[in-house]
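Researcher: Sequence recovery benchmark, item below. Answer with residues only.
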Protein backbone atom coordinates (compact mmCIF):
# COMPACT_ATOMS: atom_id res chain seq x y z
CA UNK A 1 0.00 0.00 0.00
CA UNK A 2 1.31 3.42 -0.87
CA UNK A 3 0.92 6.46 1.33
CA UNK A 4 -1.43 9.14 0.08
CA UNK A 5 -0.99 12.08 2.39
CA UNK A 6 -3.70 14.66 2.39
CA UNK A 7 -3.52 18.08 3.93
CA UNK A 8 -6.84 18.11 5.77
CA UNK A 9 -6.80 16.45 9.19
CA UNK A 10 -10.39 17.50 9.77
CA UNK A 11 -11.79 15.16 7.12
CA UNK A 12 -10.19 11.83 7.92
CA UNK A 13 -10.91 8.83 5.77
CA UNK A 14 -12.12 6.08 8.08
CA UNK A 15 -10.16 2.99 7.33
CA UNK A 16 -11.05 0.22 9.75
CA UNK A 17 -8.22 -2.04 8.85
CA UNK A 18 -8.20 -4.05 12.04
CA UNK A 19 -11.49 -5.84 12.13
CA UNK A 20 -12.10 -9.30 13.49
CA UNK A 21 -10.57 -12.20 11.54
CA UNK A 22 -11.97 -12.48 8.04
CA UNK A 23 -10.71 -9.13 6.83
CA UNK A 24 -8.90 -9.23 3.47
CA UNK A 25 -5.38 -10.58 3.73
CA UNK A 26 -2.24 -8.56 3.95
CA UNK A 27 -0.67 -8.18 0.57
CA UNK A 28 2.66 -9.77 -0.18
CA UNK A 29 4.08 -6.23 -0.22
CA UNK A 30 3.67 -6.28 3.55
CA UNK A 31 6.02 -9.23 3.87
CA UNK A 32 9.28 -7.41 4.42
CA UNK A 33 12.82 -8.67 4.43
CA UNK A 34 14.19 -9.47 7.88
CA UNK A 35 16.59 -7.08 9.52
CA UNK A 36 20.19 -8.11 9.63
CA UNK A 37 21.53 -9.29 12.95
CA UNK A 38 19.81 -10.87 15.89
CA UNK A 39 17.82 -9.59 18.79
CA UNK A 40 19.37 -6.79 20.76
CA UNK A 41 19.05 -7.94 24.31
CA UNK A 42 21.76 -6.72 26.59
CA UNK A 43 20.92 -8.09 29.98
CA UNK A 44 20.59 -11.84 30.12
CA UNK A 45 18.62 -12.26 33.32
CA UNK A 46 19.42 -14.83 35.92
CA UNK A 47 16.21 -14.70 37.88
CA UNK A 48 12.78 -16.08 37.44
CA UNK A 49 10.37 -13.22 37.64
CA UNK A 50 6.68 -12.75 37.97
CA UNK A 51 3.89 -15.21 37.81
CA UNK A 52 3.96 -18.58 36.10
CA UNK A 53 0.92 -20.26 34.62
CA UNK A 54 -0.35 -23.20 36.65
CA UNK A 55 1.93 -26.13 35.85
CA UNK A 56 -0.76 -28.71 36.58
CA UNK A 57 -2.66 -27.78 33.42
CA UNK A 58 -0.10 -28.88 30.91
CA UNK A 59 1.69 -25.54 30.62
CA UNK A 60 4.55 -26.17 28.17
CA UNK A 61 6.77 -23.76 30.11
CA UNK A 62 6.39 -25.95 33.18
CA UNK A 63 8.17 -28.79 31.39
CA UNK A 64 11.12 -26.59 30.50
CA UNK A 65 14.11 -26.89 32.82
CA UNK A 66 14.96 -23.22 32.42
CA UNK A 67 12.60 -20.29 32.62
CA UNK A 68 13.89 -16.77 32.18
CA UNK A 69 10.80 -14.83 33.11
CA UNK A 70 7.08 -14.90 32.84
CA UNK A 71 6.42 -11.28 33.49
CA UNK A 72 2.76 -11.30 32.75
CA UNK A 73 0.20 -13.12 34.75
CA UNK A 74 -1.86 -15.70 32.97
CA UNK A 75 -3.68 -13.18 30.86
CA UNK A 76 -2.38 -9.76 31.77
CA UNK A 77 0.25 -7.51 30.27
CA UNK A 78 3.97 -8.18 29.93
CA UNK A 79 5.12 -5.49 32.35
CA UNK A 80 5.14 -5.54 36.11
CA UNK A 81 8.32 -3.61 36.79
CA UNK A 82 11.49 -2.67 34.97
CA UNK A 83 13.56 -5.67 36.10
CA UNK A 84 10.84 -8.10 35.11
CA UNK A 85 10.42 -6.44 31.75
CA UNK A 86 14.14 -6.61 31.07
CA UNK A 87 13.98 -10.33 31.87
CA UNK A 88 10.94 -10.69 29.62
CA UNK A 89 12.76 -9.14 26.66
CA UNK A 90 15.27 -12.02 26.85
CA UNK A 91 12.61 -14.73 26.63
CA UNK A 92 11.53 -16.25 23.34
CA UNK A 93 8.27 -14.33 23.59
CA UNK A 94 10.08 -11.05 24.22
CA UNK A 95 12.54 -11.64 21.40
CA UNK A 96 9.76 -12.53 18.96
CA UNK A 97 7.86 -9.39 19.86
CA UNK A 98 10.80 -7.04 19.43
CA UNK A 99 12.12 -8.61 16.26
CA UNK A 100 8.72 -8.60 14.58
CA UNK A 101 8.18 -4.95 15.47
CA UNK A 102 11.59 -4.03 14.08
CA UNK A 103 11.05 -6.02 10.92
CA UNK A 104 7.71 -4.39 10.23
CA UNK A 105 9.03 -0.88 10.86
CA UNK A 106 11.97 -1.33 8.52
CA UNK A 107 9.46 -1.61 5.70
CA UNK A 108 7.73 1.65 6.55
CA UNK A 109 10.24 4.12 8.01
CA UNK A 110 11.96 6.80 5.97
CA UNK A 111 15.67 6.16 5.48
CA UNK A 112 18.13 7.00 8.24
CA UNK A 113 18.93 9.45 9.57
CA UNK A 114 15.41 10.41 10.52
CA UNK A 115 14.02 11.54 13.86
CA UNK A 116 12.18 8.80 15.73
CA UNK A 117 10.29 9.22 18.99
CA UNK A 118 9.58 6.20 21.19
CA UNK A 119 6.79 6.93 23.67
CA UNK A 120 7.00 4.53 26.61
CA UNK A 121 10.22 3.17 25.17
CA UNK A 122 10.80 0.95 28.21
CA UNK A 123 14.29 -0.51 28.42
CA UNK A 124 15.18 0.89 25.01
CA UNK A 125 15.24 -2.21 22.81
CA UNK A 126 13.81 -0.46 19.76
CA UNK A 127 15.69 2.77 20.46
CA UNK A 128 19.00 0.92 20.46
CA UNK A 129 18.05 -1.13 17.43
CA UNK A 130 17.20 1.90 15.33
CA UNK A 131 20.11 4.00 16.63
CA UNK A 132 22.38 1.19 15.44
CA UNK A 133 20.70 1.54 12.07
CA UNK A 134 21.62 5.22 11.95
CA UNK A 135 18.40 6.83 13.20
CA UNK A 136 18.20 9.56 15.82
CA UNK A 137 15.90 8.29 18.55
CA UNK A 138 14.33 10.05 21.50
CA UNK A 139 12.78 7.93 24.22
CA UNK A 140 10.02 9.51 26.31
CA UNK A 141 9.45 7.25 29.30
CA UNK A 142 7.92 7.99 32.71
CA UNK A 143 9.55 5.16 34.68
CA UNK A 144 13.04 6.11 35.93
CA UNK A 145 13.93 2.43 36.36
CA UNK A 146 13.18 1.82 32.69
CA UNK A 147 15.29 4.83 31.75
CA UNK A 148 18.11 3.44 33.90
CA UNK A 149 17.86 0.13 32.01
CA UNK A 150 18.07 1.99 28.71
CA UNK A 151 21.15 3.85 29.96
CA UNK A 152 22.70 0.51 30.88
CA UNK A 153 22.08 -0.79 27.37
CA UNK A 154 23.49 2.38 25.88
CA UNK A 155 26.62 2.11 27.99
CA UNK A 156 27.51 -1.07 26.09
CA UNK A 157 26.93 0.55 22.70
CA UNK A 158 29.51 2.37 20.59
CA UNK A 159 29.77 6.14 20.97
CA UNK A 160 28.29 6.62 17.48
CA UNK A 161 25.12 4.86 18.66
CA UNK A 162 25.00 6.50 22.10
CA UNK A 163 25.01 9.99 20.70
CA UNK A 164 21.99 9.22 18.53
CA UNK A 165 19.76 8.39 21.54
CA UNK A 166 18.17 10.95 23.82
CA UNK A 167 16.21 10.06 26.96
CA UNK A 168 13.40 12.21 28.31
CA UNK A 169 11.46 11.37 31.45
CA UNK A 170 7.72 11.95 31.22
CA UNK A 171 4.25 10.72 30.45
CA UNK A 172 3.47 10.21 26.79
CA UNK A 173 0.32 12.27 27.08
CA UNK A 174 2.51 15.29 27.93
CA UNK A 175 5.02 14.62 25.17
CA UNK A 176 4.06 17.56 22.94
CA UNK A 177 5.29 19.90 25.68
CA UNK A 178 8.26 17.71 26.56
CA UNK A 179 9.75 16.96 23.15
CA UNK A 180 7.85 19.05 20.60
CA UNK A 181 6.27 17.95 17.34
CA UNK A 182 7.38 17.19 13.78
CA UNK A 183 8.78 13.69 14.35
CA UNK A 184 9.37 11.51 11.29
CA UNK A 185 7.95 8.54 13.17
CA UNK A 186 6.42 8.00 16.59
CA UNK A 187 6.39 4.61 18.27
CA UNK A 188 4.13 3.55 21.12
CA UNK A 189 4.57 -0.16 21.72
CA UNK A 190 2.89 -2.00 24.56
CA UNK A 191 1.80 1.17 26.34
CA UNK A 192 -1.91 1.66 25.62
CA UNK A 193 -2.78 -1.21 27.97
CA UNK A 194 -1.47 0.93 30.82
CA UNK A 195 -3.68 3.96 30.27
CA UNK A 196 -7.34 3.87 31.25
CA UNK A 197 -8.48 5.42 28.00
CA UNK A 198 -6.39 5.13 24.83
CA UNK A 199 -7.75 8.10 22.83
CA UNK A 200 -5.81 10.91 24.58
CA UNK A 201 -2.51 9.08 24.13
CA UNK A 202 -3.24 8.03 20.54
CA UNK A 203 -4.28 11.57 19.61
CA UNK A 204 -1.01 12.88 21.04
CA UNK A 205 0.95 10.36 18.93
CA UNK A 206 -0.61 11.81 15.79
CA UNK A 207 0.02 15.37 16.94
CA UNK A 208 3.68 14.57 17.62
CA UNK A 209 4.24 13.19 14.12
CA UNK A 210 4.86 15.35 11.07
CA UNK A 211 2.37 15.15 8.17
CA UNK A 212 3.40 12.11 6.13
CA UNK A 213 5.20 10.59 9.13
CA UNK A 214 4.71 7.12 10.57
CA UNK A 215 2.80 6.16 13.73
CA UNK A 216 3.50 2.69 15.12
CA UNK A 217 1.33 1.30 17.90
CA UNK A 218 1.35 -2.15 19.51
CA UNK A 219 -1.59 -3.17 21.66
CA UNK A 220 -3.27 -6.30 22.92
CA UNK A 221 -5.55 -8.25 20.64
CA UNK A 222 -8.52 -8.32 22.99
CA UNK A 223 -10.83 -10.50 20.90
CA UNK A 224 -8.25 -13.33 20.87
CA UNK A 225 -7.09 -13.32 24.49
CA UNK A 226 -8.57 -16.76 25.20
CA UNK A 227 -6.07 -18.43 22.89
CA UNK A 228 -3.17 -18.41 25.35
CA UNK A 229 -5.27 -19.90 28.13
CA UNK A 230 -6.65 -22.55 25.78
CA UNK A 231 -3.25 -23.58 24.46
CA UNK A 232 -2.00 -23.79 28.03
CA UNK A 233 -4.91 -26.04 28.99
CA UNK A 234 -6.36 -23.55 31.46
CA UNK A 235 -9.90 -24.42 30.50
CA UNK A 236 -11.82 -22.43 33.09
CA UNK A 237 -9.87 -19.29 32.20
CA UNK A 238 -10.41 -20.02 28.53
CA UNK A 239 -14.14 -20.31 28.98
CA UNK A 240 -14.29 -17.13 31.03
CA UNK A 241 -12.24 -15.23 28.46
CA UNK A 242 -14.64 -16.39 25.80
CA UNK A 243 -17.49 -14.86 27.77
CA UNK A 244 -18.81 -18.25 28.88
CA UNK A 245 -18.35 -18.15 32.67
CA UNK A 246 -20.46 -21.19 33.56
CA UNK A 247 -18.73 -24.33 34.70
CA UNK A 248 -18.65 -27.36 32.46
CA UNK A 249 -21.84 -29.36 32.81
CA UNK A 250 -23.86 -26.54 34.36
CA UNK A 251 -27.21 -25.65 32.88
CA UNK A 252 -26.75 -23.10 30.12
CA UNK A 253 -29.83 -21.12 29.21
CA UNK A 254 -27.94 -19.48 26.39
CA UNK A 255 -24.67 -17.98 25.30
CA UNK A 256 -23.27 -15.48 27.76
CA UNK A 257 -22.54 -11.95 26.59
CA UNK A 258 -19.05 -11.42 25.22
CA UNK A 259 -16.40 -10.17 27.61
CA UNK A 260 -16.28 -6.38 27.67
CA UNK A 261 -12.92 -5.33 26.27
CA UNK A 262 -10.95 -2.45 27.72
CA UNK A 263 -11.02 0.14 24.91
CA UNK A 264 -7.24 -0.03 24.48
CA UNK A 265 -7.40 -3.79 23.91
CA UNK A 266 -9.75 -3.52 20.95
CA UNK A 267 -7.62 -3.27 17.79
CA UNK A 268 -10.52 -1.97 15.70
CA UNK A 269 -11.03 0.81 18.24
CA UNK A 270 -7.33 1.70 18.24
CA UNK A 271 -7.26 1.86 14.43
CA UNK A 272 -10.44 3.94 14.36
CA UNK A 273 -9.06 6.47 16.88
CA UNK A 274 -5.82 6.84 14.92
CA UNK A 275 -7.73 7.25 11.67
CA UNK A 276 -10.10 9.81 13.11
CA UNK A 277 -7.09 11.78 14.37
CA UNK A 278 -5.82 12.17 10.81
CA UNK A 279 -3.98 9.03 9.73
CA UNK A 280 -4.50 6.14 7.40
CA UNK A 281 -3.50 2.56 8.01
CA UNK A 282 -0.55 1.28 5.98
CA UNK A 283 -0.51 -2.20 7.45
CA UNK A 284 -1.27 -4.21 10.56
CA UNK A 285 0.50 -7.27 11.84
CA UNK A 286 -0.13 -9.98 14.39
CA UNK A 287 2.59 -10.63 16.95
CA UNK A 288 2.92 -14.09 18.54
CA UNK A 289 0.51 -16.39 16.83
CA UNK A 290 2.38 -19.61 17.60
CA UNK A 291 4.52 -18.79 20.64
CA UNK A 292 2.43 -16.75 23.05
CA UNK A 293 1.59 -19.70 25.27
CA UNK A 294 5.21 -20.77 25.80
CA UNK A 295 5.74 -18.88 29.03
CA UNK A 296 9.24 -17.76 29.87
CA UNK A 297 11.38 -20.13 27.86
CA UNK A 298 14.55 -18.68 26.37
CA UNK A 299 15.09 -18.49 22.64
CA UNK A 300 16.68 -21.63 21.21
CA UNK A 301 19.07 -22.13 18.36
CA UNK A 302 16.07 -22.15 16.01
CA UNK A 303 15.02 -18.62 16.96
CA UNK A 304 15.49 -17.25 13.44
CA UNK A 305 13.16 -19.92 12.07
CA UNK A 306 10.59 -19.10 14.76
CA UNK A 307 10.77 -15.42 13.88
CA UNK A 308 10.31 -16.23 10.20
CA UNK A 309 7.26 -18.39 10.92
CA UNK A 310 5.73 -15.79 13.22
CA UNK A 311 6.44 -13.07 10.67
CA UNK A 312 4.76 -14.97 7.87
CA UNK A 313 1.71 -15.70 10.02
CA UNK A 314 1.57 -12.20 11.44
CA UNK A 315 1.20 -10.64 8.01
CA UNK A 316 -1.70 -12.73 6.75
CA UNK A 317 -5.17 -13.86 7.63
CA UNK A 318 -6.45 -15.80 9.41
CA UNK A 319 -3.35 -16.12 11.60
CA UNK A 320 -2.74 -12.48 12.43
CA UNK A 321 -6.30 -12.18 13.70
CA UNK A 322 -5.57 -14.61 16.55
CA UNK A 323 -2.14 -13.24 17.53
CA UNK A 324 -1.64 -11.98 21.07
CA UNK A 325 -0.66 -8.45 20.05
CA UNK A 326 -1.55 -6.28 17.08
CA UNK A 327 0.98 -3.91 15.52
CA UNK A 328 -0.66 -0.96 13.76
CA UNK A 329 1.37 1.10 11.29
CA UNK A 330 -0.29 4.33 10.18
CA UNK A 331 0.76 7.39 8.22
CA UNK A 332 -0.31 10.86 9.25
CA UNK A 333 -2.28 12.30 6.39
CA UNK A 334 -2.39 15.97 7.19
C1 LIG B 1 5.41 -3.21 28.41
S1 LIG B 1 6.51 -1.87 28.55
C2 LIG B 1 6.87 -1.62 26.84
C3 LIG B 1 8.19 -0.98 26.62
C4 LIG B 1 8.60 -0.80 25.15
N1 LIG B 1 7.73 0.12 24.47
C5 LIG B 1 8.64 -2.11 24.43
O1 LIG B 1 7.80 -2.35 23.56
O2 LIG B 1 9.50 -2.92 24.75
C6 LIG B 1 5.38 -0.54 28.90
C7 LIG B 1 6.05 0.80 29.05
O3 LIG B 1 5.04 1.82 29.03
C8 LIG B 1 5.44 2.82 29.93
N2 LIG B 1 4.26 3.65 30.20
C9 LIG B 1 3.20 3.35 30.99
N3 LIG B 1 2.33 4.38 31.00
C10 LIG B 1 2.84 5.33 30.17
C11 LIG B 1 2.41 6.62 29.75
N4 LIG B 1 1.27 7.15 30.19
N5 LIG B 1 3.20 7.31 28.89
C12 LIG B 1 4.36 6.78 28.44
N6 LIG B 1 4.81 5.56 28.81
C13 LIG B 1 4.07 4.86 29.66
C14 LIG B 1 5.97 2.04 31.10
O4 LIG B 1 6.73 2.84 31.96
C15 LIG B 1 6.76 0.97 30.39
O5 LIG B 1 8.08 1.38 30.15
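Model:
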Amino acid sequence: MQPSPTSDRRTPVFDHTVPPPGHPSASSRELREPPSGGPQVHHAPARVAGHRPEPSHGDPAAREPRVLAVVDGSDTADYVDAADYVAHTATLRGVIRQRLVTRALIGHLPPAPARLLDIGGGNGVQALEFARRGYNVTVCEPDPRMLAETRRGLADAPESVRRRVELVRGDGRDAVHLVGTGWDATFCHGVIMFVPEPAPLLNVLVELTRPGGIISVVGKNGPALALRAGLQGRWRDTTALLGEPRAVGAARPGRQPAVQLPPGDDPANVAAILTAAGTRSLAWYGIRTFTDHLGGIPPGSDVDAVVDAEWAAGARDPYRGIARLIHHVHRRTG
